[in-house]
Amino acid sequence: MVNRVLVWASGSPRLQRQVTENPIARRVSHRFVAGERLDEALDAAAELNSHEIGAILDLLGEGVTDLAGATHAVEQYEEVTDAIPTRGLDATISIKLSQLGQTVDRAACVANLNEILDRAAGVGVPVEIDMEDSSLVSDTLDLFREAASKHPQTRLAIQAALRRTPLDLETMASLKPRVRLVKGAYAEPVEVALQGKQEIRAQFKFLTDWLFEHGTNPAFGTHDSDLIDYARKAAAQAGKSPKDFEFQLLYGIRRNLQEDLAKHGYRVRVYIPFGSAWYPYLTRRMAERPSNLIFFLRALVGR
User: Greater confidence, 301 or 225?
Assistant: First the structure.
């Protein structure tokens, strides 16, 4: 129940104004968001790199409403892309197609995506495409297929909670896709997505096995110790070394786990969000882990 309320809250403009205008809430958000400026995100990436942990830089914000907004997003993504090699960082970028105009002008979105992919390839920065809510899944898969034909290093986030995901992956088997497997952080109806924790975990494990058999360089985006242990065992059974896949975790969450995995020889990459549009992201993170909500509330009341 709490999870659903928080997911609803992530889309409430009134609550967003109240929280983002609260100076204490803004300060506490820095536990999970590197900051509003690119240099803050780059500094966070450099600190992680010093612990042999890679980074994923994510510009917060979704769903532009006009092409001017999409153009601005492209400019920001390209600024991030250029900054990574300049700073000598081990980092990728993660992009949202809705920021590139996916729901405004698909042709413009395709052009914007190709521009970013070409720019990133030119400076050796890998690109990951986020998966958004279920209404955008089919088109996102189509755009990924088109992109991967020219830029095979591109990785796509896939949500284990969606009922359609096993079939979606089967349709991409011939591509041996690069996938970031996540549980999924959007409130979806029961006919679209699995609802129970155990059934989502079961599908995550099934898809983990599938990726080791049919995918390329899979990434597992989870803080769930059970799923992490399963991936480690599944990798060994598939004859994969700790360097043949990676774990992806969120900035500010289970930092000890991040460092422990890296010390044991696993590739680890941390998803670093930055930008002014931090409220929807923060509320979804609290919905995923009640302990994050407890931390946030305690900080707000100064305890």
Answer: 225
The answer to whether 180 is a known catalytic residue is yes
In the structure encoding, which two tokens stand for residue 188, read together? Answer: 């979806």
DSSP, collapsed to helix, strand or coil, labels residue 232 as helix
Point out which residues pair with 59 in neighbouring strands. 274
> The CATH number of the domain where 238 resides is what?
3.20.20.220
Contact present, 237 and 214 (Cβ < 8 Å): no
In the set 58, 130, 232, 267, the catalytic residue is 130
Q: Is residue 206 a part of any domain in this protein? A: yes
Among residues 58, 155, 178, 180, which one is catalytic? 180
Task: Print the domain residue range for 79.
Answer: 34-277
Q: Is 130 a catalytic residue?
A: yes
pLDDT tens column, 146-171:
999 999 999 999 999 999 999 999 99
302 touches 87 (CB < 8 A): no
Number of domains in the chain: 1
What are 109's two structure tokens?
Answer: 């979105």
CA distance 118 to 74: 12
Residue 6 lies in a domain: no
Length of the chain: 303
Assess if residue 21 is contained within a domain.
no
Q: Where are the alpha helices (DSSP H) in the chain?
A: 2-9, 13-20, 23-29, 38-49, 67-87, 106-123, 137-150, 165-171, 197-214, 225-237, 255-263, 279-288, 290-300
| Residue 235 in domain | yes
This prediction has a pTM of 0.86
Structure confidence at residue 4 (pLDDT): 53
